[in-house]
Amino acid sequence: MTARIQYLHQVIAQPDFWNNPTPAYETLQEIEYSIFYKHQEYQRWCSILEDIKAALELLELSADEQLWQEAQTNLTQLQQELETVEIQQLLSDPHDQKGAFLAITAEVGSIDAQSWAAMLLHLYLRWAVNHHHKVYLVQESAGDLGGFKHAIIEITGRYS
After folding, report:
1. DSSP 3-state helix, strand, coil percentages of the chain (rounded to 5)?
2. Which residues on adjacent β-strands are paired with residue 101?
3. Model pLDDT for residues 3-16, shown as the tens digit of each residue
4. DSSP secondary structure string, 47-73?
5. I need a labelling partner for 71 at 20 to 30 A (CA). Which of 49, 85, 109, 138 fits?
6. pLDDT for 1
7. Max Cα-Cα span within the chain
8. Reported pTM
9. How far apart are CA 33 and CA 42, in angstroms?
């Protein structure tokens, strides 16, 4: 059981938990989502693993390049998903699942520093979008010759 689920169970065990129905309902929804999501994830991994096993059994009987490629693709996908879960387990504090603010500042007023700040901002924006997070520009100070002197963004989403 993850630390977050344990924390939520402690919240539910409080005698005044039901005194405020809105947060109580949200807590129960979070627990339900976590359990449902974990179960779906586990079922998907079992299915991928069964596909890999079946492919390996068939490959023992006869070599098939397409089947070999499919097994490798499935194994790579499974490995990537398990690595993601491992990182999420490391980030098990309740605050780790929340969003983040990111400030990028070009300390030196040169064009290179401002361009580097713009590249960093672009890099983090692409990361957030690729990980299905929402991004909001909170504050920006444009550079004199392009780029940024300073920018603050808010990234919302789980494990951002």
Report:
1. 65, 15, 20
2. 154
3. 667 777 788 888 88
4. HHHHHHHHHHHHHHHS--HHHHHHHHH
5. 85
6. 55
7. 68
8. 0.51
9. 14
- Model pLDDT for residues 106-124, shown as the tens digit of each residue: 877 788 888 888 899 999 9
pLDDT of residue 143: 77
Enter the tokens of residue 100.
Answer: 């983040």
Reported as a pLDDT band with limits 50, 70 and 90, residue 147 is: confident
Tell which residue, 50, 32, 44, 134, has the closest CA to residue 81. Answer: 44
How far is 34 from 54, CA to CA, in rounded Å?
30
Q: Per the structure block, which two tokens stand in for 40?
A: 């779906």
Residue 82's closest CA among 56, 116, 44?
44
Counting Cβ atoms within 10 Å, is residue 117 exposed (0-12), middle (13-18) or buried (19+)?
buried
